[in-house]
Each structure stands twice: as structure tokens, then as C-alpha cells.
Amino acid sequence: MAAPALERPTTPSGTQTVTIAKALNMGLRASLERDPKVLVMGEDVGKLGGVFRITDGLQKDFGEHRVLDTPLAESGIIGTAIGLAIRGYRPVCEIQFDGFIFPGFDQIISQLAKLHYRSQGKVKVPIVIRVPFGGGIGAVEHHSESPESLFAHIAGLKVVSCSNPVDAYWMLQQAIECDDPVLFFEPKRRYYEKAELDTSIDPLPLLSSRVVRAGSAVTVAAYGPMVRTCLDAAAAAAEDGLDLEVVDLRALSPLDLGPVFESVRRTGRLVLVSEAPPESSVTSEIASRVQQNCFYSLEAPVLRATGFDTPYPPSKLEEGFLPDLDRVLDVVDRSLAY
User: Fold this and answer.
1) Are 211 and 187 in contact (CB under 8 A)?
2) Among 7-11, 114-118, 173-177, 200-204, which is the least confidently predicted range?
3) pLDDT of 6
4) Is the Cα dihedral 316, 318, 319, 320 positive or negative?
5) pLDDT recorded at residue 14
6) What value does the mean pLDDT take over residues 62-91?
7) What is the DSSP-derived secondary structure letter of residue 191?
8) pLDDT computed for residue 201 by the predictor
């Protein structure tokens, strides 16, 4: 079910420079103002304002009955949100770190994803689960994971990821307005990167991808934290006269591969980039579908720059685990060598 068009929030329109963290806070605030049925809930989201301060000031302004500090129990958070959604509320659950989502996995897969289907469309569960994900912050075990492919595989869930403040602001509001459950993956190592946000400009549809840098030599597609890495790689390649086109996937389930197909039919090459391990992943699904739909346009096989098929390493080793500018450009060179 597509998200409806958003009414304009009371937030003053105009251009301002904000971080992704601030844009998410603004998006939550706009949704809380717009709809009294919107609730924010999670560990330390109230008085503390969240460990990343995404919910800073919301409990003070909207009260403890709408911004709720919960026990440290992800299964309980999501189960409670399901009950609230059935009663007509729109809960927004924060999972404090990506690796903490697994205690709530059963509630998400066995209940949240299936209720609409199980009830033959009579029960809606408009729940957003916010997940700070990915590495690059030097954290301990369970604090730097990329579980998005697990949820993209599950029918009944929508899975999206923002990469910049503009998308953070609008996509979060669109996810909250959606009548289906949405897993909203936030690139935590990019939380404090800044960009211009103009709240007067109409947003893109929630479940859409887009070209963020035009080019003609190689298509490079990514999502979440890797979009910035790919843009940096494209800027470096341009200094050597190589024109890369960068696509921000934005929606991981359902995938919007129209812009990717169109780009690949022009460039003849595709490099997919993500922090997640490559085995049975979002990138492997995209590679399969591009090779099925663009076979006669490809000048090289679809290649990938990803994490490795290992558990996430200790923080001292994460620089070698995460794809960086040089690894992206190395895979681009391999593609061009065909």
C-alpha cells in the first residue's frame, strides 16, 4: 500500500543546513504534530533523547504519553507497538543499535509482517521500526551490523534506508504515514553529516530510487552509508576523466530498479556497493535482476564491493572490513577491464 501524500508540517519552510540526525528529529516532530495517534517509543528515547539524540526534546514537548521510555526488551517494544497499532495508533519504535533487533525478530517476522495478510486485509499495522545500522563508529560487538537483507526477504514488510538529511526528513514522515510496517534503516556513521534541507520542496515517493550523480562510464548503485562513499569515489574518478553515475537505491523492499535498468542500458556496467556481506543479500538480488533485464546491454558482469562473509570485526579491524573509496574504484577498474 503506497504512502499517502503528506500534509505540510507546521515547521517553518525554507532552506536550512542540518545533519541527518537533526532532519530525523524534525521529521518525527512534524509527524507528532500532524497526527495525535503517532507515538515514539524505545529505550532512552524520552528523557535522554536517544543515544544518538535523534529524539532529543520530543518528550519535553509532547509528553510522556506520546514519547515513551521502554524497558530494555525489544520483543516487548515491538509486541506492544503491534497492540497499539491494532487499536489505531501509529507507533515509531527505536531499536537502539542494529544488533539489538534480533530479540524482537520473532515479533517482526511472525506477527508484524503477517497480520494484514492473516486478517484478510482487515487489520492494519502502521508501525515504523527505526534501526541505526552499519559500521564506522568504532563500537563493540552487536553495535555495527547490516541486517537489512534479512528483513527485505520477508513478505509484508517494507524496507527503506536514507542517505542524506533531505531523505531522512521526508522518508521518515512518509514511512509513518504508510499503513504497512516499515523497517527504516538509518546510517549511523553519517548522522552528523550536513546538507541543505528545503522543506518547501515536494519529496520523492518513499519507495523509489534516484540518480544522485549523472555519468556515462559505469553505474554505481548503493544505499544508506555507502552512498556518500560512492559519491566520493565518483569525484575522485572524475579527476582522472572517468564519469561514474551514482544511484541511491533508497528502497530495499520493494526495490525500484527502473532507474538502475535505465542507467545500465546506457553505461553497460554496474558496480553494487554495500557494507553487508555479499552472500544472499540485497546486492545479490539486484545483480540477478539486472543481468536478467539488461543482459544484452551489459559489457561486463555485475560486480560488487561489499563487506565480507564474516561476523563484523572488532573496531580496530573495521576499516579493512568496510568498503572504502579505493575498494569501490578498484571494482570499477575491474569492470572497465572487461
Assistant:
1) no
2) 7-11
3) 57
4) positive
5) 73
6) 97
7) T
8) 87
List, as one string, the DSSP characters of 100-149. GGGGGHHIIIIIITTHHHHTTTS-----EEEEEE-S-S---TTSS---HH
With 70 as the cut, is the pLDDT of residue 12 above it? no
Closest CA relative to residue 131, chosen from 111, 155, 156, 102:
102
Q: Indicate if 144 and 242 belong to the same structural domain.
A: no
Among residues 317, 320, 48, 19, the alpha carbon closest in space to that of 194 is found at: 19
Inside any domain, residue 248: yes
Residues identified as active-site: 143
**pLDDT given at position 289:** 98
Residue 290 within any structural domain of the chain: yes
Count of Cβ atoms closer than 10 Å to residue 214 Cβ: 12
Whether residue 187 is found in the same domain as residue 221? no
CA 307 – CA 90 distance, rounded (Å):
34
Does residue 254 have a cis bond before it (omega within 30 degrees)? yes
What the block records as the C-alpha cell of 95 is 531499536
Distance CA 22, CA 33 (A): 16
Average pLDDT over residues 271-279: 97
For 257, list phi and psi in degrees, rounded to 5: -100, 5
Give the total number of structural domains in the chain.
2
pLDDT classification of 145: cutoffs 50, 70, 90: very high
Q: Does residue 141 have a pLDDT over 70?
A: yes
Do 146 and 179 belong together in one domain? yes
Q: What is the layout of strands, in order, in the sheet containing 303-305?
A: 210-213, 244-248, 218-222, 270-273, 303-305
How far is 277 from 246, CA to CA, in rounded Å? 21
Q: Could you give the strand order of the β-sheet that contains 128-133, starting from the edge strand earlier in sequence? A: 67-69, 38-42, 90-94, 128-133, 182-187, 158-161, 251-253
The SS3 of residue 6 is coil
